[in-house]
Structure formats: C-alpha cells, structure tokens
C-alpha cells in the first residue's frame, strides 16, 4: 500500500510541477515575444495556420518630416514661377480704346534691355543746354576773342565786335557739345563728368547733335559772311581740331595736351583777324600767350584729377608722365615772362607792359616751381587758382599799355615817302 501511495503522490507532484512550468513559460512568452523561436514549440503550429490567421504588413505611416519637405518644395515652386494674369476679354470698342489702366502688362524687351524714353523738361532745357555747351568755358573763349579784337591796331567797331563775339561763342558751343557726345561712355566713369546731361540722360543724343549743328552752321556762317572769310575759316578749323583731333587723341597719346593748347590759342587770333582781316605778328603773340598759359592751368588741374582720368582711360601727362607734367608747367610759366617782354618789341604794347606785368609773371613762375619741386595737391591747387586770375589780369594790363592807333598812323605817315 505504501508503494502504491508513493507512486500516486509522485505522479500527482509531476503534473502539478509541469503545470507550474507551463504557466511560467507562457508568462515569459507574453513578456518577451521575440524569444519564441528558442523555447516555444507551439509556434510551428501557429505558422501552419490558414491564411486568414497570418500576420499582415501594415503600410508605413508618412512622417512629419517628409510632409514638411514636400510642402517646402511646393512653396519654392510657387515662388519661382512668375506668371502674369491674363487680361479679361475685351469687346471690339474696348479693344480699339486700348487696354484698361488697371491691367499690368509684362515688361517689354526694350525695357528689359534698359531702353527708356527720355522726357525733356522744357523749363529745365536752357540749363541743360548751357551745361552741354560748357557755358563757363565758352565764356572764357569769348573773353579771349574779345581781348584779341580790342588789342588790334584799328578803330573799334561795335557791330563787327558783337558779330565776332556771337559767332565765336556759337562755334565754341558746337565744339563742346560734339565733344560731350563722343565722350559719354568715358564721362560716366569719372566723378568730375558723370553729372553731364548726356550721361544722366537729361537730353537725347539726337537733340545734342541737333543743337551742335544749330550752333555750328550759324556761327561759322556769321563769321564768314558778316565778319570776314579768314575768321570764319579759323572758326571752322577750330571746331574740327577740337572734335576730330583733340577729343580722340585724349585716349591715345599725351600729345593731346599740345593739340588742346592750340585750340585754346585760336580765339584771340580770331578776334584780331575779325578786326584787321589779316594774320599779323600781334595775333600770333596773343595766341602764343594763351598757348603757354594753358599748360600751368591744365597741368595743375589734371594733377588732382589723376584718378579720374585714369578711370576714364584718358592718357594725360599727369597720369603717364608725372615728372614731364610738372616740368612743362614750369617751363611755360617762365615763357610768359619772355612773351610779355616781346610785346613792345612787336609794337603791340608800350615798354611799360613788361615792367608792370613782371610781378604777376614772377608769382605764377614761383608757384610753378613749387609745383615742380613738391608735386603735391596743395601746390597744384595754388597754381591752378593763380592761373584763373592771372590771365584776365595779364590781358587787362596789356590793354592798358596798348599803343594808340593815332600814334601809329602818324608814324606810318612820317615813314611814307612824299
């Protein structure tokens, strides 16, 4: 009996122990499903179940990051694409009248290239034309031509003097306007000239050339027909020399300064020939004085504008040959003393003129020497401002020392054989 009882208890204990082990295994499987293949034999049975019991793959949900990227792309495409709204359909009457004012049309090809219509303000047109013709330079040209007329050894004729002054001024306006027309691309690179009318678009090139032609033809005609042919020929030659020789030479050679000095020396010669009708020694002397005066004047001016001239592509002595620029200015300052001494020898003035003009000639020569030695902005500025008052002062002293016409006529009558 004891043996049978022990066997029954052992079997009962084994069943209970097995159930406990099975319960622990089920609990572990629920907690750790990834470990099923190691210790869960019934998994094979689960895999061999019908298709309706198999696991199905769920679609991967879209992340917020991808949605944000897609939205960004859509916004970028909307920003890049430039579309213009289609205008509403118009009737025949509205089509004849043109598009409504509230409809914005796309820019035309001319606007994209930078072409635009120039609208000229009629009220501002006189000022624009004055700057186009360089009115201050033209005034200086007329003053020197008037000085040449006044120094001529003939009686003063107000009508001829007025006609010669107007014709010379018109010729100067024409030459300056053509000069600005040719130099528009280069003037736009310089601070000194970028505010000129053609550069700023205040006037069209066609109007500028028309204004130049309207000044050149009456001016040369007036000098030729109303004054004398010699003065008209000198005026036409001066326009040609300034526009066709000096202007293109500024970008080719430093010789442009000497050519420009000839241009500036011709107005007093024209004034002399307007009064006498001939090219005498006095006319050449006045031209030589103006020729020499321009070198200290312009070389001192260009010294402080070297950066501008270099940016514009102009070949000036101050840019390419700075030592020559200072040396030439000093040389012609000293030449003014010799030319003033030559005036009474040519019977243009009395011997008083070289004496009373010596102080101002010595002063400009001293400033020319300081400019040659120092080679700085201060010395060049002093020489330039001195040249501004030196020329009118010298011409005024020359006029006060002019030999009288009556004395010349008496001397000629005495020398004539009876």
From TrEMBL:
Keywords: Heme biosynthesis, Membrane, Mitochondrion, Transferase, Transit peptide, Transmembrane, Transmembrane helix. GO terms for cellular component: mitochondrial membrane; mitochondrion. The keyword Plastid does not apply. It is found in: Mitochondrion membrane. One of its GO terms (biological process) is cytochrome complex assembly. The chain crosses the membrane at residues 137-156, 226-245, 257-275, 351-371, 383-400. Its EC number is 2.5.1.-. GO terms for molecular function: protoheme IX farnesyltransferase activity. It is a multi-pass membrane protein. The keyword Transmembrane applies. Residues 86-110 are annotated as: Disordered. Its main location: mitochondrion. Pfam families: UbiA. It catalyses: heme b + (2E,6E)-farnesyl diphosphate + H2O = Fe(II)-heme o + diphosphate. Converts protoheme IX and farnesyl diphosphate to heme O. Belongs to the ubiA prenyltransferase family. This is Protoheme IX farnesyltransferase, mitochondrial. The lineage of its organism: Eukaryota, Metazoa, Chordata, Craniata, Vertebrata.
């Amino acid at each position: 009996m004891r043996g049978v009882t022990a066997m029954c208890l052992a079997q009962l204990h084994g069943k209970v122990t097995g159930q406990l082990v099975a319960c622990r295994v089920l609990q572990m499987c629920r907690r750790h499903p990834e470990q099923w293949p190691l210790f869960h034999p019934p998994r094979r049975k689960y895999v061999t179940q019908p298709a309706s019991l198999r696991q199905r793959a769920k679609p991967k949900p879209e992340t917020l990051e991808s949605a944000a990227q897609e939205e960004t792309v859509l916004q970028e495409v909307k920003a890049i694409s430039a579309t213009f709204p289609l205008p509403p359909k118009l009737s025949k009457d509205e089509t004849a009248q043109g598009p409504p004012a509230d409809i914005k049309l796309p820019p035309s090809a001319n606007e994209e290239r930078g072409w635009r219509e120039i609208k000229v303000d009629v009220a501002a047109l006189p000022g624009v034309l004055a700057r186009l013709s360089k009115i201050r330079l033209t005034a200086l040209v007329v003053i020197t031509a008037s000085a040449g007329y006044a120094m001529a050894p003939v009686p003063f004729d107000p009508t001829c003097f007025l006609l010669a002054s107007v014709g010379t001024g018109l010729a100067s306006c024409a030459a300056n306007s053509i000069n600005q027309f040719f130099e528009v691309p280069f003037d736009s690179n310089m601070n000194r000239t970028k505010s000129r009318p053609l550069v700023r678009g205040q006037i069209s090139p066609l109007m500028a050339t028309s204004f130049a032609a309207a000044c050149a033809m009456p001016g040369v005609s007036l000098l030729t027909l109303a004054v004398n042919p010699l003065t008209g020929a000198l005026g036409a030659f001066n326009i040609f020399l300034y526009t066709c020789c000096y202007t293109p030479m500024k970008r080719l050679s430093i010789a442009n300064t000497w050519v420009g000095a000839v241009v500036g020396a011709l107005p007093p010669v024209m004034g002399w020939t307007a009064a006498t009708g001939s090219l005498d020694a006095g006319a050449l002397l006045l031209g030589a004085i103006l020729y020499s005066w321009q070198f200290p004047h312009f070389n001192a001016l260009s010294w402080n504008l070297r950066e501008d001239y270099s940016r514009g592509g102009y070949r000036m002595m101050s840019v390419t040959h700075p030592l020559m620029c200072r040396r030439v200015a000093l040389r012609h300052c000293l030449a003014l003393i010799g030319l003033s001494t030559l005036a009474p020898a040519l019977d243009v003035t009395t011997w008083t003129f070289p004496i009373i003009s010596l102080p101002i000639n010595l002063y400009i020569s001293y400033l020319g020497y300081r400019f040659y030695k120092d080679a700085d902005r201060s010395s060049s500025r002093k020489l330039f401002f001195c040249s501004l008052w030196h020329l009118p002062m010298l011409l005024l002293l020359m006029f006060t020392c002019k030999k009288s016409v009556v004395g010349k006529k008496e001397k000629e009558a005495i020398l004539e054989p009876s």
